[in-house]
Amino acid sequence: MKRDNFATRLGLLAAAAGSAVGLGNIWKFPYITGKNGGAAFILVYLVCIVLIGVPVMLSEFALGRKTQANAVGAYKKLEPKKSWYLTGILSVLTAFIILSYYAIIAGWVFSYISKAITGKLTSVAPSALGDYFNGIISQTAQPLFWNFVVLAITAFVVIAGVKDGVEKYSKMLMPILFVLLIILMVRSVTLHGASKGLEFLFKPDFSQLTPASILEAVGHAFYSLSLGMGIIMTYGSYIKKEENLVSLSLQVTVLDTLVALMAGIVIFPAVFAYGLEPNSGPALIFVTLPAVFKSMPFGSFFATLFFALIAIAAITSTISLLEVVVACFTEQFSIERKKATILISIALFIVGIPSTLSFGVWSDVSIFGKSIFDAFDFLTSNIFLPFAGILVCIFVGWIWGSKNAAKEISSYGAFSFKLEKVYSFVVKVLAPVVIGMIFLYFTGIMDKLKSVGTMLPNIVL
Ligand code: PFF
């Protein structure tokens, strides 16, 4: 089977950055920054991105390009007799589960666009916005309808292929995203009282920073850069040998971080200007911001732009999540692209039903004390992602070998790769250790170890 490739450098960058820039940047980053005290958290996040994010991204690009295969096939090609391909299966499964609930949040965004355009959203009293949001997400038919819309758009692009679908639409949507962000940023920072929001974002207060925030920063770096689930690996397999992977990884990382910061500059000055709380968690964009738009002149217009911006960011990410699963099925089981995409999308819709209902009629159902949606999110973001991340690092660092990876990264000497030694240290040692700590922390094992640690002296005595 002939493999599709990205046709242009710009298209490749738009697709990879489009995958990275998503709900993680515009919805999650602002609220975890709000929760962890603002600027100090951002500084830690930036260190994590540079120190761990870029080297792991380079490793995934290199693995994909070297093997010219999907996330499962890549391991099979390099280690045909070993079980490393299970790491690929874990990544593909993670992408599938994440997409099943990511599309639900994207669906809420689409429903908010329709409500912003008609002016309904800005007609709700600020104090009633929380109930309004809950009223929307706890229904059955409406969220499922919007979930279907998101999956249908995503499938339409993926069926068209890498060059004529993923690349073409990313190249079109990413510039629009930047234009919308800039318009909204200018609006937000020119509001009366905006400076407090900028201070919150850029003046560090280290007293708010806990070890937990540091682990949250590393975890989010992975989430935001689309690492650990085979996305970057799969995109890497569509890249030509003449491409410089170091500059590509740096550009994707810079764009991703820039959008997260710009989203913060859109959100926090407005939140402070209207005297609202910056730490309202996941409800920040669905409840707090509509209150901001309501008080603004031309509020419905800016609300529509804002939710359109998030919808674009979300769609370029759902495309990449679906591409990972489709690439795996078309290549490993020789299923035709269109057929694979439709079947997987139907499966995603079905798997997404319990998550959708967990905000409404199934809100009482709990798995280990979490709602179905939260359980899926926890399992994938906090357990599967870091676990797959460690395995990718060990594979590249020790099995394939960081020297071989470095050769691929430099396109076999065509480009210089000055920081090879640092890179080697990070993939072999630093990244697996730090990601391992996140894993122990989020699974609660670290707490158990700590309590065993404090009990030990008593036992010895
Ligand atoms: N990187 C994208 C985001 O930040 O929204 C998409 C994404 C990738 C989401 C990986 C979740 C994830 F685990």
- Going by helix content, strand content and strand pairing, the class is mainly alpha
Termini separation (Å)?
68 Å
Number of helices: 18
Q: Total strand count, please?
A: 0
Order of helices and strands: HHHHHHHHHHHHHHHHHH
Percent of sequence in beta strands: under 5%
Give the proportion of residues in helices: over 70%
Largest sheet: none
Shape: globular
Rg result: 22 Å
> Which molecules are bound besides the chains?
4-fluoro-L-phenylalanine
Which residue ranges are poorly predicted, with pLDDT under 50 across at least 5 consecutive positions?
Answer: none
What is the average per-residue confidence, as pLDDT, rounded to a whole number?
Answer: 92
Walk me through what this model shows:
By secondary structure, the protein is an all-alpha fold. Helix content is 75%, strand content 0%. The protein is built from 18 helices and no strands. It has helices spanning 9-20, 23-35, 39-67, 71-78, 85-117, 129-137, 141-159, 162-189, 195-202, 211-224, 231-236, 245-273, 288-295, 299-332, 337-357, 372-409, 420-442, 445-460. Helix 3 (39-67) packs across helix 16. The chain is globular. The structure holds 4-fluoro-L-phenylalanine. 4-fluoro-L-phenylalanine (PFF) binds next to helix 2, helix 5, helix 10 and helix 16.
Summarize the entry for a quick read.
This protein is mainly α and 461 residues long. The protein is 75% helix and 0% strand.
Structure characteristics:
461 residues, 18 helices, globular, binds 4-fluoro-L-phenylalanine
